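Q: How would the structure tokens look for this protein?
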Amino acid sequence: MAEKLGFRAGPIEGPTHFSLFPPLLQQVWGQAWFERGCISSHYLNMVVEGEEVRDAGGGR
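A: Here is the predicted structure in token form.
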């Protein structure tokens, strides 16, 4: 369907990306992450299935 609509592959929605962060953040900061943590992101382009992503250097 994605190719039929002109995309290289199926788009990956935001909740999927965000579901990957909590386990890592909990390893680093423990329970404090859930009590006082915060995360924000800005996507420059749509992410598609199979594509590797990285921090574009704008993180704070």
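The CA atoms of residues 26 and 42 lie 22 Å apart.

The chain has a mean pLDDT of 79.

Upvote if useful.
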